[in-house]
Each structure stands twice: as structure tokens, then as C-alpha cells.
Design a protein that fits this description.
The structure holds two protein chains of two kinds. Chain A contains ten helices and no strands. By secondary structure, chain A is mainly α. In chain A, helix 3 crosses helix 7 and helix 5 runs antiparallel to helix 6. Chain A is globular and about 60 Å long. In chain B, 33% of the residues lie in helices and 31% in strands. In chain B, a hairpin with a 2-residue loop joins strand 8 and strand 9. In chain B, helix 3 packs across helix 4, helix 3 runs parallel beside helix 5 and helix 4 packs across helix 5. The relative contact order of chain B is 0.15. The C terminus of chain B is likely disordered. Classes of the chains: A mainly alpha, B alpha/beta. Chains A and B meet through helix 1 and helix 4 of A and helix 2, strand 5 and helix 3 of B.
């Protein structure tokens, strides 16, 4: 298991020293800290503006980073041949992939935690309270990013960087629309569309289950059991994507 | 004397590898068409071949990066994907590449940890490996600041840092300047003296001739010659140049003028050279010098290349 952490550590350090990550982080941090300015162009109260902008920025930044890092960690390593040296060690492809997944997720957790902290400080300063729903929403955001990262790694085990980025972005969009896809396809007269809609609904992760941003924005409390079941739901998809990644990557010739 | 499988560091039998190509993946290209060879422990083995002959594909099969289409491969008595084989093997890929933002020291620390080197001796191993490739001064620099030669040296250091008994080097001289090449040759010779098995691929024939006990020549995905370097070379001179003076002007129309009254004469072999020298003496000439060119590995290699069809890879 220690080999998994070596790969995770290498992935984290490599990402941490990447200037793109820092540029993006500072930009998003600035957006979070200046979110009070958005009150000028909305009718909402200041505390709600801060929550909406802050959580949306966190989510957007996390998604961008999950796609960028998730896609690059495996595909780029194969394209640049850094993977040759690593896999010639007594590591195994499964541990390599698990290390990569954990390394990317750990990078996301650290980067988003820094932003979340800034968001909490600003929220406490303007709203005067720190409700639990903010932490629950942040936790499920991290679970969602783990699902997205595991899918981006799956895509990068069998296709190019550009294609895996496109596939991952499509999953994010479709994952938030699965219920709508199911609803509208069920109204169709075509059996093919109905069945395709149902298949997508059952196959794709319903990322809305992991989305508590609206509840956080409106300060609606959510039972802990719902957060736990949503976490378990996300982890099932992470496991499924990981097993599929392994099935592809184990058989892949690294030319 | 034949080697038993226990004496062999590498045993490859009828290894074949085809890659599916094209959008539909229907066509295939055969990269290896039945490679068989064995490398006894403790030898320095040269794997020689022109570009595209199948050297890197064979090596990647040995390291478990590529899976054979058919045939068997054994590394230190284990399957190439066995972690135990990887623990006892060091590998330098062709044109190695590392994580740009990690330092050389961090790369070597990770290599040690991945290979299971105990924490108590890790620093010592890293220091030794850096010393072997003369990279102590750059160990704390990020890899993106390294020159090509420095990356190559780091690649060698990571292959040696866990003290492997088998070292597989894919084009180890690539990217090195003349000093680096000399250092690399000394390093390989030193590793050989320590009793390690070294398997390295190259298309630089003089390196094999200088360093290896055994050689296999691979062309078009097949091993066309395999044996001890000394057996392949032979002892017979391939060409003899006789330098002579005071010869009559009509002695030989092919004689090359060297100035100061001396000429250069060519003989195809040693017997012809003896005959030529006797003729020079018989006409009152003087032999100044004799230069012989022995049958080299380059001649063996070029002969084998000439025998092969122009199309090195077989499309099915």
C-alpha cells in the first residue's frame, strides 16, 4: 500500500508546483473574496450572494482542476513516457492508478480547502454565522470531484487527452441532467429514445444527488443520513470507474 | 556448456508481438516475429539492431510494459510482470522522461521507496547513485531545468539506486556527450565487474564490441545472429594496407601516392599481403609499414543487414 502513497505524493507535488494550478487558485480566491461586489448587480441579500458566488466558484474551480489534472495524470504520463520508469518498479498498474486517483483528489482537497476557508471567513464576516449545511455541501462537492476524477482517469486509460477531457466535461453536464434526460425521454414516442434515456439515467452518476449548493444557499438543513447515503452513492461510482480503468489499463501496451 | 534456466537472467522463447493499427484496428504490424535468446547471469549482453528492428519492443516486453502476442519471456526466473522481477531489475528507457517539477533527489527517493529500499539505507543509496552518474551538484534542481544529458544520467541513477542484479538499458548512450559516453562505458564495465547482468540495446556497434561478452543482432523482429562477441569477430584480417618505398613506377597502377616517394598498396587478406611484400622486396623496394583491419562486428552487422529484405516490418 505504501507504493500507492508514493505515487499519490509524486502526483500531488507535481501538481503543487505547477504554475497553472496557482494562477487558477489565486484567480478563484480573489473571486471568492470579492463576491460581496456582486450585490451591486443582484436583488439578493449580501450573505446569500456571498454563499452563491463562493460555492459556485469552488465548484467551477474544482471541476476545471479535476478535468485538467485527471486527464493529464495518466494520458500525459503515457505520452511523455514518465510511466515507463514508474511501472518498471515493483508497483503494479492497479496501485499506480489508485495512487494517481488519490494524488489528484488530495490536490483538489488541499486547493479547495484553502478556498473554502477563505469563503468561510468572508461568510462569517458578512453573515455572522457558519451553518453546518456549508460543510455538508463542501463535503459532497469533494465526493463529486472524486467521481469526476475517477471518470477522467478511466477515459484517459483508453483515449487521448483531448478526448478524455471532452468525455469528462460531457459526464459532468449529463450527470447533472440525468433526471431531466429521463423525464423528457420518457415522454418521447420513440422506444429507442425512451430506452436510451432510461439507460443513461441508470448508468450515469446522478451528480445532483451530490449537489447541496441550493440548500446551502437557502440555508436549508439536510439530514446527516442523506449526506452519508449520497457519499456512499458517489463512492460506488468511484469504485466502478476505478475497476473499469484497471480493466482497460491492465491490458494496455505502453508503446 | 549449456546454461540451465536457473543460470539465466533473461530467457526469451519465440517471442512474437503484433500491434493493431489504423482506425478500425483491423490491420496489424508485426514488431517481433519470433525472437529467441538467452542471457546468462553476470554477462554484459548487447542487443544490436537498426532503428525499428524491435529492440525497444523486446525490452518493453522484458519490463512488462508490453504484453507478448505469443511466446514466453522470463526475467530472473519470473514473469516480466512479477513484482519480484521488478524489485531485482533496473530499467533505463530510451530517452527517459521524468516529472518536470520534481527534483532529481525526489525522483531517486521515490524510486527507492517504490523498490522497497529500507529507509535506513535510502540516503546512502541515493548518494551512491548520484555519485556513480556524477550528478551530485544537480540533485536539488527540478528536472525541467536539466539538459538532455543530465536527464539521461538521472535515468541511469534511478535504474541503479535500488542495487538491482539485472540492469536493462535501452540506448544508454543516447543524448550523452563524448565525456558522458566515456563515463557510461566505465560505469557499465564497473557494473560488469561487480557481477551484475547488463542487457543493453544500441545501434552503436563499437560500444557492443568494447563492452559486451555476448551479442544478439536483431533485424526485422528476428534475432539473426547470437553469440559471444569473440566468436563473431574471428581472427582473420579483412583488409591489409602495405606502405612501401623505392618502388619502380610500373610496380602497381593501383598504388596510392603518399608523397616523399612512398606508396600505399591494398591486399584483400593476410596471404595476399605476404605475397605482395615478397614482390616489393624482389624488386628492391622497402616495406615501411603494414596496417591490418580485422573482421569487426560492424562487418557482421552490415552483412546481416544486407541479407535482410528492405522492408523490416511485416504488415499482415
Amino acid at each position: 500500500m505504501s507504493n500507492v502513497f508514493v505515487i499519490a505524493w509524486m502526483t500531488f507535488v507535481e501538481a503543487r508546483r505547477n504554475r497553472i494550478l496557482w494562477s487558477l487558485l489565486f484567480f478563484c480566491l480573489a473571486l471568492v473574496l470579492t463576491s460581496f461586489l456582486f450585490q451591486e448587480v443582484t436583488v439578493a441579500t449580501l450573505d446569500r450572494v456571498i454563499r452563491d458566488v463562493g460555492l459556485a466558484t469552488l465548484n467551477g474551480f474544482g471541476m476545471l482542476l479535476a478535468i485538467f489534472l485527471g486527464v493529464s495524470v495518466v494520458t500525459r504520463e503515457i505520452e511523455r513516457r514518465t510511466v515507463y520508469v514508474l511501472l518498471s518498479k515493483p508497483l503494479g498498474r492497479g496501485r499506480y492508478l489508485l495512487g494517481k486517483l488519490l494524488g489528484v483528489w488530495f490536490t483538489l482537497v488541499i486547493a479547495l480547502s484553502a478556498m473554502f476557508l477563505a469563503f468561510l471567513v468572508e461568510n462569517a464576516a458578512y453573515a455572522g454565522n457558519t451553518p453546518a449545511i456549508l460543510f455538508q455541501a463542501f463535503w459532497l462537492m469533494l465526493v463529486e470531484l472524486l467521481v469526476v476524477t475517477s471518470f477522467s482517469i478511466l477515459a484517459s486509460t483508453f483515449t487521448s487527452s483531448a478526448m478524455s477531457a471532452f468525455m469528462t466535461a460531457s459526464l459532468v453536464v449529463a450527470g447533472h441532467l440525468t433526471t431531466d434526460i429521463y423525464f423528457f425521454s420518457s415522454k418521447s414516442k420513440s422506444i429507442l429514445i425512451k430506452r436510451s434515456g432510461a439507460a443513461l439515467f441508470y448508468l450515469l452518476p446522478n451528480l445532483e444527488k451530490l449537489n447541496l449548493k441550493t440548500d446551502a444557499s437557502l440555508l436549508r438543513s439536510v439530514p446527516a443520513a442523506q449526506v452519508c447515503s449520497a457519499t456512499a452513492y458517489g463512492l460506488v461510482y468511484v469504485a466502478a470507474f476505478f475497476v473499469l480503468s484497471l480493466a482497460f489499463f491492465r491490458r494496455r501496451d505502453l508503446k | 556448456m549449456t546454461s540451465t534456466s536457473g543460470d539465466l537472467a533473461i530467457a526469451i522463447c519465440d517471442l512474437r508481438k503484433s500491434f493493431a493499427v489504423g482506425f478500425a484496428r483491423i490491420r496489424s504490424v508485426t514488431a517481433l516475429a519470433g525472437v529467441s535468446l538467452s542471457v546468462p547471469r553476470g554477462r554484459t549482453f548487447g542487443f544490436l539492431g537498426p532503428n525499428g528492428a524491435g529492440k525497444s519492443t523486446t525490452i518493453k516486453t522484458l519490463t512488462g510494459l508490453i504484453f507478448p502476442t505469443s511466446g514466453t519471456v522470463s526475467v530472473l526466473g519470473k514473469a516480466p510482470t512479477d513484482p519480484e522481477a521488478h524489485r531485482r531489475m533496473g530499467y533505463l528507457p530510451e530517452n527517459p522522461s521524468f516529472h518536470d517539477h520534481l527534483t532529481g533527489h525526489e525522483i531517486l527517493t521515490s524510486a527507492c521507496r517504490l523498490a522497497g529500499v529500507a529507509a535506513s539505507i535510502r540516503s546512502e543509496r541515493i548518494r551512491d547513485a548520484l555519485h556513480q552518474v556524477q550528478m551530485q551538484h544537480a540533485s536539488n534542481l527540478q528536472v525541467r531545468r536539466y539538459s538532455k544529458g543530465m536527464v539521461q544520467r538521472l535515468g541511469i541513477a534511478q535504474a541503479l539506486v535500488h542495487d538491482p542484479e539485472l540492469i536493462i538499458l535501452d540506448e544508454p548512450m543516447s543524448g550523452l556527450d563524448p565525456v558522458g559516453r566515456r563515463d557510461m562505458k566505465d560505469l557499465i564495465a564497473g557494473l560488469h565487474r561487480q557481477g551484475r547482468t547488463i542487457f543493453f540495446s544500441t545501434h552503436i556497434i563499437s560500444d557492443v564490441e568494447e563492452l559486451c561478452d555476448e551479442v544478439a543482432i536483431v533485424i526485422g523482429g528476428r534475432v539473426v545472429r547470437h553469440g559471444k562477441v569473440s566468436d563473431l569477430l574471428g581472427t582473420e584480417a579483412r583488409e591489409v594496407e602495405v606502405l612501401a618505398a623505392r618502388l619502380p613506377s610500373d610496380f602497381s597502377p593501383q598504388a596510392g601516392e603518399l608523397g616523399t616517394g612512398s606508396v600505399s598498396l591494398q591486399a584483400a587478406n593476410e596471404a595476399d599481403a605476404r605475397e605482395l611484400i615478397e614482390r616489393i622486396w624482389s624488386v628492391g623496394g622497402r616495406v615501411i609499414g603494414v596496417k591490418t583491419r580485422r573482421y569487426g562486428l560492424e562487418d557482421v552487422f552490415l552483412e546481416e543487414v544486407a541479407k535482410q529484405p528492405a522492408k523490416m516490418r511485416i504488415e499482415e
